[in-house]
Amino acid sequence: MRILYGIQGTGNGHLSRARVMAKSLQEAEVHVDFFFSGRCQSQFFDMQCFGEYQVEAGLTFATQHGRVSRAKTAWKNSVPSLLSDIHSLDLSGYDLVLNDFEPVSAWAAKLQGVPSIGISHQAALKHAVPKAGESWFNDALLNYFAPVDISLGCHWHHFGFDILPPFVEVEPAISNNAHEIVVYLPFEDADAIVSLLAPFTDYRFYIYHGDKPTLQCPEHIIWSGFNREGFKLRLSSCGGVISSAGFELASEALTLGKKLLVKPLQGQFEQLSNVAALELLGAAETMASLDNEALRRWLKSAAPEPIHYPQVGDALVKWLLSGEWHTGDKLCRQLWNEVELPQSWQRKSP
């Protein structure tokens, strides 16, 4: 079987899931080519596991001051360029397009009649899971941004639907240093992050951010660019995580038993819906803005018990190779039977 795997490059969550899948596909000796869009090629990093991958512009969202900017998004994206990318992508040598919310390969598969299977967190939002910010536009986005023949979503809880558990691969938790905090707020202003953390001198904050602050960082604030291996190691030993409301990092924190404080990207339907789910499950503290008092309360809170999710990538690849793609519901149930959810989650529903 030859597979083209299309992955949305905006943010790091899709990439984290793709890395889990790349390892499983390689172990199964599946011929797979990787296709990314939504980010400039120079902005990708730690991509060795994907071999010789392809990058096109695709579509992405632009942000400003911690929220989606519609004006900048419209300016940044080109519909004629997107259509050109779709029509120029030749899928004649592939048996299947695997897709993680990536529009170019999804539409190319649809137009060329190549079977397509979507695996993404966005697909879970097509079910009646906890959501916020619903609108006709967001419904259209979920259905038409990257359309596929078969769609499998993933979420922290099944909420009674045929949804996969998260794709998680983390370093084992080596310690739980309550006074060491990992901070990943990529959409927030760098100086605003320094101002938020500066008063809390009893803690050490390890910030991973694409920009550097103009303010002088106090000694308890350690600033660095994003390095995946260093980040994973720090994540395994920290006491908690302050992050945007992206899906994959929250999944890693829950798996490791790290307490979580999230600040969603305002105007972004997926992140607002993630907040709704986390609040329903009681799995994280949330803040609508960079809030000193919310941070103060959260720093004093206890760590949760870790959640042991199964190896979703291995099971999914085995299912793909079986060709029995009509049995996605059976795959989902099988994987959730391997998960022992916290007692407080057991009867949660939207």
Secondary structure layout plus pairing:
Blueprint: E1 2-8, H1 13-27, E2 31-37, E3 54-56, E4 63-64, E5 67-68, H2 70-76, H3 79-88, E6 96-100, H4 103-112, E7 116-120, H5 121-124, H6 136-144, E8 150-153, E9 177-184, H7 190-197, E10 204-208, E11 221-224, H8 228-237, E12 238-243, H9 247-256, E13 259-262, H10 269-281, E14 285-286, H11 292-299, H12 312-322, H13 328-336
Parallel strand pairs: 1-2, 1-6, 2-3, 6-7, 7-8, 9-10, 9-12, 10-11, 12-13, 13-14
Antiparallel strand pairs: 4-5
Helix pairs in contact: 1-12, 3-4
Describe the structure.
The protein is of the alpha/beta class and 350 residues long. It is built from 13 helices and 14 strands. A 6-stranded parallel β-sheet has the order 3-2-1-6-7-8, sandwiched between helices. α1 crosses α12. It starts with a strand and ends in a 14-residue tail after the last helix.
Question: Concise description?
Answer:
The chain has 350 residues and is of the alpha/beta class. It is built from 13 helices and 14 strands. It has a 6-stranded parallel sheet, sandwiched between helices. Strands 11-10-9-12-13-14 form a 6-stranded parallel sheet, with helices on both faces.
Q: Determine the number of helices (DSSP H or I, runs of at least 4 residues).
A: 13
User: What is the 3D form?
Assistant: globular
Mean pLDDT: 90
Radius of gyration: 20 Å
Low-confidence stretches: none
Cα distance, first to last residue? Answer: 39 Å
- The percent range for helix content is 25-40%
Main beta sheet strand tally, sense and closure: 6 strands, parallel
Oligomer: single chain
Total E-strand runs = 14
The fraction of residues assigned to DSSP E strands is 15-25%
Q: Give me the secondary-structure category.
A: alpha/beta
Along the chain, the helix and strand elements come as EHEEEEHHEHEHHEEHEEHEHEHEHHH
Strand line-up of the largest beta sheet = 3-2-1-6-7-8
